[in-house]
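A common beginner's mistake is to predict each chain separately and then try to dock the pieces by hand. The better habit, illustrated here, is to supply every component at once so that their relative placement is modeled jointly.
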Amino acid sequence: MTPAHLLEIETQAKAEAAAADSPLAIRGMTVFYDQKPAVFSVDATFQPGRMTAIIGPNGAGKSTLLKAALGIVTPLAGKATIFGAPLSERRDRLAYVPQRASVDWDFPARVADVVAMGLYPKLGLLGRFTGAHRAKVKHCLARVGMEDFAHRQIGQLSGGQQQRVFLARALAQEADLYLLDEPFAGVDAATERAIIDVLKELKSEGKTVIAVHHDLSTVPEYFDDVLILNVRKVSEGSVAEAFTHEALDAAYGGRLDLAGTAALPVSA
Amino acid sequence: MIGADFVPFALTPLLIGCLASVACALPGNFLVLRRQALIGDAISHVVLPGIVVAFLITGTISTWPMLIGSAGAALVAVAMIEGIRRFGRIEPGAAMGVTFTALFAAGVLLLEQSDTSGVHLDVEHALFGNLESLIWLDAIGWSSLADPQALAGLPPEIFRLAIVTALIGLGLMVFWRPLAISTFDEGFAETLGLPVRAIGLGLVIASAIAAVAAFDAVGSIIVIAMFICPPAAARLMTNRLGAQVLWSVAFALASAISGFVLAAYGPLWLGAQNAVSAAGMIGTVSGVFLALAALFGPTRR
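With all components supplied together, the output reads:
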């Protein structure tokens, strides 16, 4: 074998080793909506025990990348591994918080009912909902400062309160990897503070947090790592290395017009 | 009314009306919450040409050919909706509306052209069913309920609907959690590993079975009304899903019973001679309940 071949094998082996350690490793992810690429050939390896922001202009495919990794949208090509294994073997280790606007909040449910949905993997079809489960729901609501709202109809909550209920539901899943789609979109300052405190708590417990994020000004304050996306990957790494003017110019600058008009729905 | 005539002439149609109403109202809750109420409407229309074709082929109106015919018609309808949407560049709602109206009309034409004089199958029957004719001639009074010979003469629709209603109720109880989670938040349900497409399909199939079983006895008017009115009224009474489903059963039963009684005796009370269609009255009463819930329901907007 030539040295070039050996190098290729070595690089591949390294990538595979990194993927096995990573809470979420994405390889060659490509998603098309109506013959337009929403995500094109994206590789990303997220680091354990860290908080990563996925940023990029509107229509950059941030939410789509998450949804493709979670099997919610079907990619044209590419795969994702969760803690080194396919998604189907690792569902119990991840918790997903969708965009708040993706559901109908007029649904007949109380706050506690929504949080209890996070206990479904433990309860199964017919498992009895016991006092211990009730206590768990209450505890998760307390962590997001919503314990007094347990019996409130979800449609009567403010946007920020709804977002906290979604986070409480994810906490009830007791996962190791938390994936959040725009957790700070349209929430009040108090909620933003409450959410970031909970996420930092999760990190201090050794959990991994990945969030689609819009507000560039808070990236260095909230996050350790970034993945900058504009359909393709622009840069990836720690905030110090990857959150640079060059990378942001490449993602937002010259292509802002194109990205702004591209018919790529961020959330379907 | 609770005299000796009640058991042979009113008990069985009343029971059948109640069972048909509940069978449709139960899945209707989830169809309405998923904004798929139109699917219930579509199914109940599409059933007609399926049944007519099944009758033309087999010459009988027994259960299995009707079920298969309805299922076939539903498949044709899905293909037509998809085709119209793709090639006609029409929004999905309109494609659905055009398809089921056209198929129902085709069913009416087929029905007119075929010789169905020997069986209970005509346009009026398709709309209103034959609730009043589902009587129990073997009964002589309440004592007949303990008489095996008389019980053997019960209309078969009652057993068919009882089984379908029980199965739908049981299915709802067993799959309650996945159904509720995927109805509220499909993306989240998917990350839990729930088979969201299979759940959605299961709901539509359960609705179709309810529609076919009820159609024969009570016609399409009740089916359409019961998929939507009791669940929509129930949503205005409570903010919890479990309570909503129970309320919808209560509204379905109240509509069936009061509609049946009003149809039989209402015109007499007003001085008229003839009774009116029980199915029509049941559908109307369910709409009145919805209107009352919209005006006075505690959780209305």
